[in-house]
# Entry
Amino acid sequence: MFFQDVVFWILTVMAVGAALGVVLVRDLFRAALLLIVVFMAVAGFFVLLSAEFLAVVQVLIYVGAIAILIIFAVMLTRDVQRGNLPNRLQIPAAVFASLLLVALITVAVDTKWDFLPAEQLERVELVQTSSVTTLTSEELTEFGITSAEDQAEVQSSGLADLLIGDYVLPFEAVSVLLLAALIGALALVRPDPGTGRG
Amino acid sequence: MSFEAFLIVSAVLFCIGLYGALARRNVLAVLMSIELMFNAVNVTLVAMAKYLAPAGLQEDISTVLTGQVFAVFIITVAAAEIALGLGIVFAMYRTNESVDLTEATQLRH
# Structure
């Protein structure tokens, strides 16, 4: 537990420091690199929260695709020299963001959360960490899940089962959204056929 | 490393992103701030999936994965958003020769 706390605080300092850098650093290219640090720290949080699959997805999609796209955009637009200037809303935005922060922290601390019962914790963690693999009965027995019904329940409760089971409609909708967004992006960046300018 | 600690960290990340999205002039900086906000929300969702008891836990253990499923959807939507956003940035750069949001006034009457 102590080790996890240390990792948590290191990740927190990394994430908050780099996030402050993203919005305050003048050089946009450095801001994009600091954004990668935030993404990696968030992937670390996912591992701490026993969501290993999401941590891998985070690294693949955010660090591997989104960050690279942003760096490309920074390099392809010539405004880099002007840097990351603030607009006239700076002070109202800071006030609004800090008020929201106070409200969110109050809610987080004051609410009486409905926590998982302690005797369920081990099973829940097993289901969450094994979100993409099927566990064998022997492995489940090692974790103290011995009855055949419980084993069947854990084995058929992965993330993939949920995505193409209970959540198949949002899953399909998101696929169509992604396709539409990519076609839209292609249409936007296509050179103008009339002038040939790109 | 309690549940509240995760909530507070993600609230801090979200508010930093919100400040950046409101107060920056460069559209790429605004897009990066929006990505920060997406990440903060994902941390909240996954933390809630880990620590809180979902409705219907007794009947179906897989409800503890709901938060992760939502995080997967948010990551996908963020990818779509950034692809379309950068397309708009390039179109804007082509017409304006700049990615400064204060200079994008074509839609003003």
